[in-house]
Amino acid sequence: MENYTMEGRTYRYYGQEAPLYPFGYGLSYTTFRYRDLVLSPPVLPICANLSVSVVLENTGLRDSEEVVQLYLRWEQSSVPVPRWQLVAFRRVAVLAGQEAKLSFQVLAEQRAVWAQDWRLEPGTFTLFAGGQQPGQKTRAPSEVLSARFSVTGTARPLRGC
């Protein structure tokens, strides 16, 4: 095999065509609301990790679990990258009418791109948090919040951090 590109070979690289059953697809017996997505710091050095927090509220009448998913999108990259990349997820049980504040770390290595070696690049990124992929259409409603952050510095190999 000489062509190692993933374009057209996995749903992450299909362009605008959505998969029939994407990660996180399913139904729920209750409803959830996401709010207060906070990225810290909003501008970070090239080798730094990103802290993320989000509040998940069970707005339904039943106790239930939700799989909170974080996706990363590169706004510009020197090489082809997925539309978005799953960088964290957590199953959380929330009682009816209650809320939970969740914290995550997005590591610098999760922003790395493959360009003959793993590299970190500066630029603007969008982070999505919700119970499904960004833009996913399901029968059960689920919100997806988004926030942008910037990475400063010069591109460098990941092993240089």
UniProtKB/TrEMBL annotation:
**Every Fibronectin type III-like domain range:** 66-133
Origin superkingdom: Eukaryota
Q: Which Gene Ontology terms describe the biological processes this protein takes part in?
A: carbohydrate metabolic process
Name the Pfam families for this protein.
Fn3-like
Checking SUPFAM superfamilies in the record gives: Beta-D-glucan exohydrolase, C-terminal domain
InterPro entries, from UniProt? Cellulose_deg_GH3, Fn3-like, Glyco_hydro_3_C_sf, Ig-like_fold
Q: Which UniProt keywords apply?
A: Hydrolase
Record's catalysed reaction(s): Hydrolysis of terminal, non-reducing beta-D-glucosyl residues with release of beta-D-glucose
Q: What is its EC number?
A: 3.2.1.21
Q: Which GO terms describe its molecular function?
A: beta-glucosidase activity
Query: What broad class of enzyme is this?
Result: hydrolase
Tell me the SMART domains matching this sequence: Fn3_like
Q: Which family does it belong to?
A: Belongs to the glycosyl hydrolase 3 family.
The name under which this protein is listed is beta-glucosidase
The species this protein belongs to is: Chloropsis cyanopogon
Taxonomic lineage of this organism?
Answer: Eukaryota, Metazoa, Chordata, Craniata, Vertebrata
Q: Which gene encodes it?
A: Bglm
